[in-house]
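Residues determine shape. Take a concrete instance:
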Amino acid sequence: MSSVHVWKVAPAGACLLLSSLSVCADSLSTEPVVVTATRTARTADASLASVQVISRDEIERAQAGDVADLLRFFAGVDVARNGGPGQATSVFIRGAESNHTLLLIDGVKVNTGTDGGAPWQNIDPALIERIEIVRGPRSTLYGSEAIGGVIQIFTRKPPASGVSESGGIGIGSNNTLRADGSISGRRGRYRGGLGLSYYGTDGFQTRTAATLDRGFGNTSINFHLGADFDVVDVEFSSWVAQGRSEYLDFFLAPVDQDFANSASALTLRAAPAERWDSTLKLSIDRDNIEQNQSGDVTRTQRQAIDWQNDIQLGEAQLLTAGLYLAREETDSVIFGSGFEGKDKNIKAVFAQDQIRLGAHDLLLAARYTDDGFFGEKTTWNLAWGYQLTGVVRLYASAGT
């Protein structure tokens, strides 16, 4: 195991813009605002779900090697690894299968089209601003990958005003090196930011009978560019991670693989009417793995259109309705067996109604999905909450 000493430089009292919500380091409320549980901005206790937020301060204190190292300390989340740094990692929420834990990066799905897993081991915490963990089914809002729950990563974005810079470097045993730097800013209606990180190590002996160390190298980039015009807010975001992971095969022979992951999106936000907010997201994510000794390869790509509409029907009722279209393309050859040309189209519509009746809160949601592999499915979610006292809330939920 590597021990790493890290030096950081960052501005104090910075503010950030997160999903159209302005959040300052010195928060005015002890209850964080989350968007993942209902796809709308709600305080964590009002979302009628088991939600936990990992802040930037907590991320920096943890000094974790990857995002899975952060998640393993939180209740209801279990992490399983196949070896050292960079090895295949699975995350389980409340005992559900690992492919039923949906991972979003800035709203973009990154679970693969083959086994449904996500590249947890390749996500550098240096580029993360915060993480939202939602325990329990959210398939009505996000699809079948969210049966167990949803984990959404929000990468570092431009501040609310001015310019922000940060950076750090760390060295440790096993020739471990970590380095990261970012700069972002906002001027008038325009905003942008760029972050870079590197994590490399010679590793250690991952098998009892092994005599070779197995290393890992990961270079990651995070980019944001946006503009707030009079009628529409436009933002482009992109996260990329690529590198090499070394491991041992069944016979303890040294092998390695190259990986490349990316999630990019163009997001347009507008308000067609006084009580109507509309968001259109065009996204593409890729997950590529190439084995350098055997020639095995796995390439997956998802192109998606996600259109969400939030309509305020009254002071105590918010209706959310949307359309999701996606095409998944998969090309995989492992141990000589092919998974070639297994492409599919996905079409879905969803609706959610959040109602406040005095001390009671009610959430009703449903989704219809037409999957190119699994056919037509309908999922649902119900939740009820009651404000017992000023600080105590009771809630119950059920869903698919």
User: Anything to note?
Assistant: Confidence is low (pLDDT under 50) at residues 1-6, 8-29. The CA atoms of residues 312 and 318 lie 5 Å apart.
